[in-house]
Amino acid sequence: MAVAGPTGPALSREEVDRALARLGAEHEAVESSLLALQDHAGRRLLEGAELSGVTKSRWAVTEQLVTQLWICFDAYTDALQAARELRGRRRWPTSAELSELTDLLRGSAVTLPGGPPHAAVTVLGGPPRLSERLSLQELLDRMNEWYAQALAVVVSADAVWSALPARIDLLAAELRRVRALAHSVGVRPGEHPAGDDLERITAELAALRAEVVADPLAFWSEAPPGAPPGTGRPDTVRYDRAALALEEVRREVEAVLDVRQDAEQRLMRVRDVLSRADRTLGEARRARVEVLSKIAASEVPAVSGPPTVLYEQLAVASDHRRNARWHRLSPLLEGLEQRAEEELLRARESLTAVTAPLAVRAELRGRLDAYKAKAARHGVAEDACVVERYDLARRMLWSAPCDLVAAEQAVLRHQQAVAEALAGGRVPAQAGPERAQGLGLGQSAAVPVDHEGEA
Asked: What does the alpha-carbon distance between residue 268 and residue 260 come to, in Å, rounded to a whole number?
């Protein structure tokens, strides 16, 4: 029976063999991980880079951790080798050998020198230790912990370096293309806001790339606690902001390029719209004079003069085109196109407002003629009341100046007379010989003529 020691009952031969197999597998896994960390591209980049900021301080700690990891691994290797040699002395180890193997495998059989400052072992209430004794399992747990910390730094820095600099370089290439286009159309710093934006974006990309190369961990967004080492993503906020600003400038420069390509056609369209607006305003002014002479007691709005300000701006735009000042022509032409359309719309509204009384008079005339035709179809056109009210309404509508309010009332009275004649079934009185000879059947009294000779 195995003798109990400081670490508890001694292990049996089978338990020793199983422990040695497990620790051997752990040893191989740790060795593979350390070698992979040693060959990791991110670690080589960190070793050769001129670091700053967060990355510099964290890499300094990580280098100490890596050094300490190899020290721990060597101690782990020596202790495991000693246990294997002891177990290999004979097929059936003695009780003393089993107790010694138990101490090696379970006890604090590994002595380590003091680690990095932040990792120095402390006793509660006491100073850091210069050395410490650990069991193989404790040593393995510590190596796993330090390895995870070191790997997180290496993987995070490598992820940022793999993602951001390449994207920044692509954006910088697009920036150079946009700057070349901008210069070709006169969009330069100090002369156009987009030129100033290009300078700011250029400076921002240069600064961003230098910061990413020197301090990649400053651009790493950590994953929630408990995630695997290196889990997270590069912080692209500044890059995205620069890309969005460049896209806005690109659209503006392309708009200026479009102006250069079709400036003449657009200027001709603006001239045509302004000419139509001018002609419409002239028609409105002539219509106003006609309305004031033919319509009485009607408020006729005033008509403004030609759009001289827009013509002046059109002349400036033409000068910009002749002198290839495309960056100045672009915003001016866009504003001109909009204001020219607004001016044409205003001119049409002015014409409509001025001619409204004439439209009302025409509508009243149409209604009067329609009811006269209705009276003739139903045989009441010779009714004395119908004839009298028709003559009065016609005289008012075909005279100048025409009182629209009174004329409308006259038309309504004629309409009422026709309705009464149809409802009452009155037989129109026969016209006397004089009336028949002078007017003829179905005709009214002489039709007055307005001042313009209009019937």
From this structure: 14
Average pLDDT of span 234-261: 87
Three-state DSSP class for residue 110: strand
The C-alpha atoms of residue 419 and residue 424 are separated, in whole angstroms, by: 9
Whether 315 shows a pLDDT value over 80: the answer reads: yes
Cα 49 to Cα 24, 43, 158: the distances in Å are: 36, 10, 12
Task: Please write the tens of the pLDDT for every residue from 250-272.
Answer: 988 887 777 777 777 788 888 88
DSSP, res 307: -
Please, is 318 exposed, middle or buried when counting C-beta atoms within 10 Å of its C-beta (0-12, 13-18, 19+)?
A: middle
Q: Which of 320, 336, 315 is nearest to 269 (CA)?
A: 336
| β-bridge partners, 402 | 295
Can you tell me the distance from the alpha carbon of 96 to that of 147, in angstroms, rounded to the nearest whole number? 36
- In the DSSP assignment, the letter for residue 200 is H
Please state, in angstroms and rounded to a whole number, the distance separating the CA atoms of residues 137 and 293. 113
- Asked whether 232 and 222 are in contact (CB, 8 A), the reply is yes
Helix (DSSP H) and strand (DSSP E) numbers for the chain: 13, 6
Token code pair at residue 282:
């002239």
- 233 exposed, middle or buried (CB, 10 Å; 0-12, 13-18, 19+)? middle
- Please answer whether residues 358 and 294 qualify as being in contact, where contact means their C-beta atoms are separated by less than 8 angstroms: yes
pTM over 0.85: no
Residue 143: other Cβ atoms inside 10 A: 22
The pLDDT, as a whole number, for residue 426 is 52
213 Cβ contact list (under 8 Å, min separation 6):
49, 161, 165
Q: What does the alpha-carbon distance between residue 450 and residue 328 come to, in Å, rounded to a whole number?
A: 56
Q: Is there a contact between 301 and 354 (Cβ–Cβ < 8 Å)? A: yes
- Token pair 């370089």: residue: 169
